[in-house]
């Protein structure tokens, strides 16, 4: 019995020691975030809670840099985040500026400009950045106006705001905010 206890003790000690030696990577400087509409749907424990939209994106930091027009050049396709291209999933069909988008997974790209952004919904998913962006896979493009933020937004941020016909996906970073108007049956 003592022998069995000793063997178990040594095995457990060896397992614990090896677990402490594992080196995990440091926190990414652009951590990923997940956003749902309705905003509380992921925390709602009722079985009736169903999301309409989910956005998965990475949140790059300003870090004292000038963002739009410098880091993210005007007129160039941008992944609307960092790391992988931003993923947007529609759990039912929606409209963006009156144009239908079918239920499914897509990438969200933007083309920032001084006074507006071109929003791009694209069928190509699971790609790193916008380096292999393929315009032939665009589902739609539409322009939205920008507005200037009263204060600097240090990390790229997204949220949803309710509207009478659906919800706006609000994207803000540095001194720029855009609202992307999705409409759907509530």
Describe this structure in words.
The chain is built from one helix and nine strands, in the order H-E-E-E-E-E-E-E-E-E. It has a nine-stranded antiparallel sheet, with no helix packed on it. 10% of the residues lie in helices and 45% in strands. A hairpin with a 2-residue loop joins strand 4 (94-96) and strand 5. The chain has one helix at residues 2-20; strands spanning 32-37, 53-58, 86-90, 94-96, 99-101, 104-112, 116-122, 138-163, 166-183. With 186 residues, the chain is mainly beta. The chain has a domain at 28-145. The protein is globular and about 75 Å long.
How would you summarize what this structure contains?
By secondary structure, the protein is mainly beta. It has one helix spanning 2-20; strands at residues 32-37, 53-58, 86-90, 94-96, 99-101, 104-112, 116-122, 138-163, 166-183.
Number of helices: 1
| Shape summary | globular
Strand fraction equals 35-45%
Element-level helix/strand string: HEEEEEEEEE
Can you give the mean pLDDT? 89
Quantity of strands, as a count: 9
Major sheet, described briefly?
9 strands, antiparallel
Q: Specify the structural class.
A: mainly beta
The largest beta-sheet arranges its strands as: 1-2-3-6-7-8-9-4-5
**What share of residues is helical?**
10-25%
Distance between the termini: 66 Å
- Radius of gyration computed on alpha carbons: 22 Å
Organism: Pedobacter yulinensis
Pfam families: DUF2911
Keywords: Signal
Signal peptide: 1-19
